Amino acid sequence: ILNLLYLWAIAFFAAGCSKEHVQVSPLVIAHRGNCGGFPENSARAFDACVDAGITAVEIDVYLTRDDSVFIIHNLDVAQYTGWNGQTQDYTAAELKAGILAKTGAISLTFDDFHARYKEKFAYVYIDLKEGQGYEKQMRVMNKIGTLTRDNPGTCRYVATCTSLNPIDAIITIDTTII
User: Does pTM surpass 0.90?
Assistant: First the structure.
């Protein structure tokens, strides 16, 4: 049913728009921050985006063992820490320490990210990474929704998920209705 509702909404929107009413402007989205020169999804990568005037970033999130929403690209933490296991096997503090030791990068929980950047970006695209399952993805969404409702900023968060059908995967977090 959700597929049909989203398809109907997109079709309705498309049918109701004429190209005279559509205004297109470029949007630069930094994938995992400015990871060309800095470790991906790190504070320095996001700071570099702010410094460069980039107004939209994409981040990747997983839940940790202590139920923190952690910004990291892979479920498997070996690349970032040299450790065996998955994000959910470690606490946020353990992951931060492991990533700092291996890469020198300051990593962030979503709470850290929101506190630092809620007024710095126009849009943040949150990739609810596959592999953690629907229940954890929804828990992530609820945690993000609660945080952004209780501590709003000017930034708009849009969540996507590559493990679901693409139309089902787009959820806009609107703090006015959460």
Answer: no
